[in-house]
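Follow-up to my post from last week.
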Amino acid sequence: METISRISSMLETARELTLEAAQSAAINRTSGTDYSSRTYSPAHIKKLLDSRHEREVLDGMRRVISLMYRSEPSLTFFSAVVKNVASANLEVKKLVYIYLVHHAEAEPDLALLSINAIQKSLTDSSPQVRTMALRTMSGIRVPVISQIVSLAIKRGCGDMSPHVRKAAALAIPKCYRLDPNTLPQLMGYLETLLGDSQYFVVGPAVAALLDLCPDEIGLVHKNYRSLVKKLVDMDEWGQLATLRLLTFYARKCFPQRTQKVKRAAPEAFYDDEKQQQEAQDDAEEYEVPVMDPDIELLLRACKVLLQSRNSAVIVSVVRCFLYLAPSEYIASAVGPLVALLRTPQDMQLIALYNIVAVALRVPKPFAKYTAHFLVHANDPPHIWRLKLEVLTILFPHCGKHWKGVIISELEHFSKGTDPELVRESVRAIGRCAQGDTSTAGMCLRILLGQISSPDGNLVSESLTVIRHLIQQDPSSHKQTVLQLVKHLGSTTHPDARATIIWLVGEFAGIDPENNIAPDVLRILIKGFADEMEIVKQQIVLLGAKVYLHHLYRITLLWRYILLLARYDTSYDLRDRARLYKSLLETPSSTQLANLLLLAPKPVPHAPSPSETRKDLLIGSATLVVGSDAGYHGLRGYTNLPDWVELGQEPDPSLRTEDVKPDTSSNTTSMTAGDRLDKALREHKTTSISSRGRNGPAMPLDPAGKKTLDQWLEEEEEETETESETDSEEEETDSEEESSSEEEDDESEEETDSETEAVHKEAQQLLG
Amino acid sequence: MSGEIDAVYVYDEQNAPLIEHVYRSRPPSASAILPLYLAHAEPRPSLLYIPSASPPVTVFSTVESNLLFLAISEVDTEPLLALEFLHRVIDVLEDFVGAPLLSTKVQANYNVVAQLLNEMCDGGTVCNTEPNALQEVVEVPGWMGKLLGGIGVPGTSTPALGSTNPLKQSLAAASVSQGPAIPWRRPGVRHTSNELYVDIIESLSVTMAPSGRLLSALVSGTIAFTAKISGVPDLLLSLSAPGGQHVLGRKIELPVFHPCVRLARWKERPGELSFIPPDGRFILAGYEVDLLPIDPDLDEPPSHMEKLFLPAIVDIRKSLGPSGSDFEVRLTLNTNFPGQSSSSRPGATRSGSGASTPSFLGGGGSGSSGPALEEVVVSVPISKSVRHITDMQASRGDAQFLPATGLLEWRIPTGKDAGTLTGTATLRCSVSGYPSADDDLEDSTPTPPPQSQSQYNAHLPAFFAPSSTSRPTRRTKAQVNASLMPNSASVSFSVRGWLPSGIKVDSLNIDQRRSRGLGESVKPYKGVKYLCVSNRGVERRC
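User reply:
Got it. Predicted complex:
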């Protein structure tokens, strides 16, 4: 999907944009001075920070943060900033926290001063403040506090607000990096959080699990089904982590089972046929894979995600289908994968790498989208290279019409001016011919047509590909060689000439009575002195081969060649000539010469350039980097484990969820009225009970426990009794407002006195 | 493989570090990574592995309005995750700081940027990228708030400078404690004027064979939506296409949706988007349309091609003139858009209910005057071996050759004074290449190799190459010029008020029963804009 910024820029014409840019620059020049801190001395900023007026402190903090981002020295303000950590003002607090996390490592002792105040904020009435405090505390990179952080996470896990629980989940990996010894405690917290009813808590929890202990599948069993169920409602980043986890999990826990099934044989028409069939019955029994219902649950949940706006989610689903599911699933994911070509160019490139890797395994479903892979004039090299590769992979699976289009496209690009593109498209033609032998003739004709081109690069590349094609099927290409020889007269490119001469030599033994090789040799010898060295070498080699084939009938010519080579300037050529000479001198060594010169050559095979990446994991960075990443891939790269063997898998009963009196899970069968009553009852009880718990009296909305879809569904059904609920809501709202207002006032006073205490403390320390 | 991002770096137009935000561990600093990144030759791929950095890192990059955005990771991170994140960062920054993103704007708002980056990713795990949710937690200074007021940031999240209203804070806190009912929509949205805008942008990409036959014609469409509406509205957007609803389902291929769209509804009735929008501007859906569906298994070329209307077609004839050094580009413009008869205004379809009479904006403010073809530019890639192009004669507009980019650009004026656009325009140029060794040797004595070849050519037996005796061994002037000829041309343009797929907004309704917090009497202003863009999208091979 396009991004909003790109669409906006399309909607506004370029002129409008530049105008706006100029205007804003002008605004910045006038009003920007007000905000740049250059006009303010550090002393002034310090004074602002020490001010008793919140407004001035906030101003000071903004300046400090700007300094920090401008990479100007801002560490000098540390003590002045830390004093404000207990500020009642949320904005000031936020900025102080950002500063703290950034600089704590440099000033660990001073940073510790702030811990006390942050800890107090952990029990603040506002969940936003609690979230920020937990987040900041875990972000301070001072290893001494790891136990405090761990305790804070523990507290956060039991918090009523899902936002705080989310922050707790996000804090787990940070705490682990602070002190790996906290792992056992952290895993305990993870277990709680993975079972959380809120989908946006579970996502970060899964990410934390992957970070800490990706192999600890024991934590997943119990939550497997709830994770799959929540997958659709999670945010994109949670979906990505969950898909990553469950793909690995599935390989470790669901063995590949097969079941013997008898093919439903068509009713036999004739009696004797029937008998035959009975005889074959045993053979017709074949095995079909049986899917575990749990894995099917996952795959079906994934299908909905194929319409996600996030390209990474789509590639993750493709990965899931490719490695876990039967082929009909991956076929359904191919379209959305190809649709990623609509994304901006930077993502297009990554999408193409994944498309190539999938197409190498299952090319057929991609044939429908061949038109998407046509190369455009404004594609950069790394894009067209992959597009050409996809085209050649799809080539054997297209109908004749598209085959024709692909070939003519490749022919078009082979006549271009970019030498790289020319080379790649000629190679692509070769791969097309190799992939589909029925079109080899057509490809060869095109390549032969290009030999007479004035572009030497094209000619030599074409000839290499032609040579490969001929070698793959030498028996039917006698005429082709003859045609090539005709080009010897016109081609000046040394590589091309050498290739042709080599081919003549390879065919010298066929049909000895009517062979052109001796004649070609005779003519070539005349211009021997003017040839390039690489051509000379091939001429000498051709001579040796012909001499051997025709059993010394061209002795005079052979001696002449040797004489020419003997006085050549190149020592390499002289050496070669000497070798052939002594090899062919005595009839007794003919056997050896045969072995050396006329050995059958291995058939060359040009694989798709990405063939080496085929086994790398879809969606990983290693897939894109390829062999440069080293043998084991980039750090942190692991390939999927093999399917667990039958009998080795964990007991499926582990995945049955604990039966909880979960009210929200089976409400679908209730009528709207029942549900409303129930919700109201729940509402009251929770709001009463919650007063006793974590400080603030926050009535727990029943909606908070439900998944998004349930919420929306419920809303639809609610309409009948809307007036009723509305009034109810209003009542609770006003209650809530007044109560929390009071609370807030109190806490403000508290924090005020706190601030002063910290101020004093800090001053004493600095004093 | 993981999903962790270690740092985000942004560089300004002069490649000076602008933002440096480290999320976890100790990646190489912004100034250390830049030269290693720039060491890779242009064009740089979006993922680069830099083993020479310490520690070795992968760098994900994208460029937006001349700012370079890098995401750094020390471990194998899903590349698309990192790039999606970067794009979200760009979108969110534009939303908060203002588009287009300029380094001066970013510098003036470092405190906002710091809060945003801090919220979007926590300890390397991407966690909160919804603009609405970010508006809840990121404080914007007063004057910025006023600026943002235009795009719908309410008073609740932008308290005046330094003022802390306990009531307001507790209200916000209450919503935070329950967890958002709708994660993408801010609670308590209030607007004085309620407005809804739908923008459908289709980008056209057509490939034509040298014969003029169409090889492919693809359209990728995006529906952008702007919702400035109070409360929690439940909207229903119906699309239509010529041929009726059932055609639409087949026409719109591979759609992707914003998470707010109810997928079940779309599956049941393709073309109907039912959703509760986020506040502000967002991308509602993306889709594509194949204007030239060809069965992949087809053996014969499709005999009855669907008649395809294109506002601009380009053709090229090359190797003209006495020495074959000229070429001619012929541009055919056609503004007789199909389905736009003079009586009907573009997209003037009305839905049944009186409450939803969309007031459609015509093409680019020109009211009822039908679609407007604009910004027509023909680009011809020129070979690197061309030294310069002379005698550029354009029958309309002016042409310019930029050797740096290797592009010949020909702009055709489309303004009011340009008169009628329909018709053909031609541009004739002649190229000259660099003097090669061949040219120098033209008059001097022939070099040995060709001589020897011609010598033995004379002695060739009949089966060798009968024609090669007459074939000149050196490249003639015509051949040299032929290699300088361009081999493709493409045309860019934009059309306001017309979509190649023919898709239209049929109606946009507010479901009053399901919406909340929006008064009965409120009739939001509705606007629809259609735009077709071709960014060098119509390409002709030759």
